[in-house]
Write a structure and sequence with these properties.
The chain contains 14 helices and ten strands. The chain has 316 residues and is of the alpha/beta class. The strands form two sheets. It has an eight-stranded parallel β-barrel with strand order 1-2-3-4-5-6-9-10. A two-stranded antiparallel sheet has the order 7-8.
Amino acid sequence: MNIKFFKNIFNPLRIISIVFFILLFSLIAVFVYLMFGSLESNSEINFGVTFSQISAEELNIDWQKTYLNILDDLGVRKIRLIAYWSLIEANKGEYLFNDLDWQINNAKAKGAEVILVIESKLPEWAKELNTDEKQESTLLFLKEVINHYNSKAIIKSWEIGEKEISLVRETDFSNKPIILTVNGEFDSWLKPAILADNLGISIIRNNWTQYWGYFSYPIRPIFYKKRADLTKFLTGLDKIIITELQAEPIGPKSIIDMSSTEWENSMSLNKFQDTINYVKRTGFDEAYFKGVEWWYYMKGEGNDSFWSVAKEIWAK
């Protein structure tokens, strides 16, 4: 009797079923917590933009003129700039900071603040290196960029990849906080939040895949706020910001090769305005748009509607 009783209690199938229902209940509870509730629109959110020299060049627009219009015409005062490895060290051991210096100096002249993204995508010359050589070259590039700009008060923080953060921590040559950016919808926020000083997230409202075509994630604004609160509670992190807020078309091709219909399907003016209103209801107080080069490109093509709507943001 007792043996039969214990066999029933500790039956592997029964244990698996119990564990499954506990996990299922936990997932449902987390889903309910994250997705239900609402927040009032935050009219005081600080907006900035990410400026990419390479993105401007891919759109065949004058990147310097575009950048100056971002500062002067839009009036942006929070900017994410990108230190591209392929531009700064096109040839091994030759570091050219002219273009990035120009961007930072002009931002400083306007009293702007900069987050400097150090992009570690390998340049052509480094792709043939072995693993150890690639890591050594990556560290040298990080050191060169950080040492070059460490004394610049205009740069408020570095943004680097998760693989590179240990290199920076080990050598201890930075005196500014480090940001890690993760996918706001699907990535885990916990590990990056533990590793970094500040956490950045991306929000992509309108997306495209070859299987689903164009679609919008059915995620309510409160989802991001509650994930942020939970992450801060579990890790002790103080600051989480939206570093990449999608505000340009996403599709099967590069933007310049997409048709106007494909642009409209992904990022119409209504969707752009909806994105602005949506992010104001996430509870965050700082967000950086991705796509300002495209707004300027559209303006040059005779459609200044995106630029005009954006201009209202910084006029307030």
